Amino acid sequence: MRVLGVDPGLTRCGVGVVEGVPGRPCTLVAYYVVYTDPADDLSLRLLHLDRSLTELVAKHQPESVAVERVFSQHNVRTVMGTAQASGIAVLAGARAGLPVQTYTPSEVKAAVTGSGQADKAQMTAMVTRLLRLAEPPKPADAADALALAICHVWRGGTRSKLAAAADRARRGGAR
Q1: What is the pLDDT of residue 162?
Q2: What is the pLDDT of residue 52?
Q3: What 3-state DSSP class applies to 59?
Q4: Model-level pTM?
Q5: Which distant-in-sequence residues (6+ apart) come within 8 Å of 172 by Cβ?
């Protein structure tokens, strides 16, 4: 399964692509950070993010997209930008006809490190180790995007299989 993970952000949006199957180590395909200039008009920043994510989906042909779910923060301005970037990421996957799954930061941390309370350094170290990289992906937004993709391979693949089995059961066992 090839997954494109997105750590949404309006100024820096991390994108990571991995391949793998549940229960096995994943393989790095690529990672990026899409930057927008805070001085630019919001509409232009969102358009740049949309075009960039659409191009990356087309280039890497993932089977699904994993996006970090926006969570409440004290800084409303920051959470608004993150939410807008998240919507663009979900749209890029949906526009390509791909399943899109969102994960909370604690779900990703638990899947990748075993602890939902892991810090950025622990996450980056585990992503580096799990993907067998010579050096950590930088900046942290890229490492977070790769962690989302790994989380989806390990958890989302299982979710998809369970959903397909439940659907078959509802239809009387027919395939």
Answers
A1: 55
A2: 98
A3: helix
A4: 0.88
A5: none
